[in-house]
Amino acid sequence: MKKAGVSIDERFRRAHPRSEALFRRACAAIAGGLSHDIRHLSPFPIYVDRAQGSRKWDVDGHELIDYWVGHGALFLGHGHPAVRDAIVGQLSRGTHYGACHELEVRWAEQVLKLLPWVDRIRFVGSGTEATLLAMRLARAATGRSKIVKFEGHFHGWHDYAAVGVRPPFDRPVSAGVPQGILEEVLTCPPNDWDAFRLLTFGRNDIAGVILEPGGGSSGTIPTDLGFLTRLREFTRAAGMVLIFDEVITGFRFAPGGAQQRYEIYADLTTLAKIVAGGLPGGAVVGSAPIMDQLAFRDDSAWNREGRVGHAGTFNANPLTAAAGLVTLELLADAQPHAKADRAGQNLRTGMSEVIEKLGVDACVYGESSIINLFLGPHRHGLALEGPASQLDHRLLMGHPNLEAYHQLRCALILQGVDLPLFHGWLSAAHSDEDIERTIRAFGAALRLVQDDATL
Ligand SMILES: Cc1ncc(COP(=O)(O)O)c(C=O)c1O
Question: Which domain does 427 fall in, by range?
């Protein structure tokens, strides 16, 4: 409800007539008007016309500093010249050979160079496919069926990943998920060793344990490194496959991802986003004994019954291989990480100061080049500076004031910044000027939201 003057909603509508018209058309043609749930925005999403570096331009002519950067995939920013040249160069040589090709081998070798503790890679089409394949590999390797996942950790949209994502954690985030599949996934509160031990005690049917090592839902629930260390030791002793989902953190937290940063190593790792250089793609990497379950042998019984099957029309397609390879070469020296991490730190600090100054019930936090935003009474329920095991993940994932998130996002867009509702990503293309402008825009946007009485 608006105290006085023009509401954010009204301003947003007035500033984005073309986006509103496109959304109206989209709703008649595309189910739900959207192609990804996370792009939902009330009253309507903006439509983007082009992007370059840290910026994008919407169809109504507004320039925006972008903290989506391809859902975190474009670590070097939009349209990096070397990545663009690699894609354009490949375009004229063919986009899909329906055959093996040299680029996929070079891309694979580059991944293994950055993750030297890993033996093998298998390319897939997306992060969702990566976690699906990793779970299958874990089940095949152990002959067991159950997967443990943690509340608030996100692993894509397939049925096995649809449980324990948002509160209430005991109910799937989607209709249409078979009960039989839900029973194969055991969910556990994050960072809670006692709960994990209780859940797994006396069981011999657990194939694997999957989690985002950098924290559930892109760091919304920060990780307790002590918990991660114990989990590594315990799963090894119990013969469970430990799967780190590094779709977000892979090549972002360091050239070798969260595992290089924390020096804790999984049996299997799922990758997507940055690994594919901003085009569709992903991968599973891991140790030879687990990964070689995918290999054909000179043994028809093995090939038909023992082997792990895997297909996918666009796996390691030449365009993605070209973009992924050059991206991974460019980030190998960790210079992009130094820049993006510094930008992330400056942004978190600046936004926190704004929150403090305005006395808003909110907090900004995050690790490396991720920015997490919580709107709500964190001072009473959270202790982000304390041990992660004491965080209330139900509160962090609960988003009690969802309307305020939408209002703030719209208000930020009106100020020239596109920040996802709950967490955003920085890239090596974000400049000091971008950060300063974003902090100013955040102050102005928060004041608009306060004025609209949603915060
Ligand atoms: C940690 C994590 N795992 C898996 C996925 C699914 O990846 P994709 O959207 O490529 O299917 C995501 C997507 O954001 C993710 O953040």
Answer: 8-75+334-451
